[in-house]
């Protein structure tokens, strides 16, 4: 982690809904938040927006909204509602499209973004601009 911090690198953390994202779970979004707090130069991406389950994703979004180095990937998110909810708390530039292929259908993940009731600039950010800026 020290080297990743020195390099200002990117860390993708698999977050899930096991044990309802309790800290005892190896896939809890709380671990990603701890890393982001302790290594603020590391760009931490939470896979599945913190846990794929709507309730857990909402908690992850709210709990990390003040952390400038936390990003979210949309893989496994099965409803546009979560994307819409996220934009109430975080900038679309912190959300990165993910498909979770082959577990999820690429097209269904794509259309979750397209079908979300959000502006076109936010859609463009999520689908490609956010990633491009992250890796610049």
Strand order of the largest sheet: 1-2-3-4
Termini separation comes to 20 Å
Number of H- or I-type helical stretches: 6
Helix content: 40-55%
CATH class: Alpha Beta
Cα-atom Rg, whole angstroms?
14 Å
Number of domains: 1
H/E series: HEHEHEHEHH
Q: Name the CATH homologous superfamily.
A: Metal-dependent hydrolases
Question: Total strand count, please?
Answer: 4
For the biggest sheet, the summary is:
4 strands, parallel
Q: What is the CATH topology descriptor?
A: TIM Barrel
Shape annotation: globular
Explain the overall architecture.
By secondary structure, the protein is of the alpha/beta class. It has one domain: TIM Barrel (Alpha-Beta Barrel). The chain is 43% helix and 10% strand. It has a 4-stranded parallel sheet with strand order 1-2-3-4. The longest helix is centred in the last third of the chain and has 16 residues. The protein is globular and about 40 Å long.
């Amino acid at each position: 982690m020290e080297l990743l911090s020195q390099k200002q690198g990117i860390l993708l953390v698999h977050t899930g809904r096991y044990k309802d994202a309790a800290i005892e779970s190896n896939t809890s979004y709380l671990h990603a938040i701890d890393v982001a707090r302790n290594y603020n130069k590391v760009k931490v991406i939470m896979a599945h927006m913190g846990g794929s389950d709507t309730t857990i994703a909402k908690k992850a979004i709210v709990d990390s909204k003040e952390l400038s180095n936390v990003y979210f990937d949309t893989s496994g998110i099965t409803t546009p509602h979560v994307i819409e909810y996220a934009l109430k708390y975080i900038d679309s530039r912190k959300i990165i499209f993910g498909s979770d292929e082959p577990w999820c259908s690429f097209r269904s993940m794509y259309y979750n973004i397209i079908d979300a009731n959000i502006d076109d600039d936010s859609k463009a950010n999520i689908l490609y601009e956010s990633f491009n800026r992250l890796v610049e």
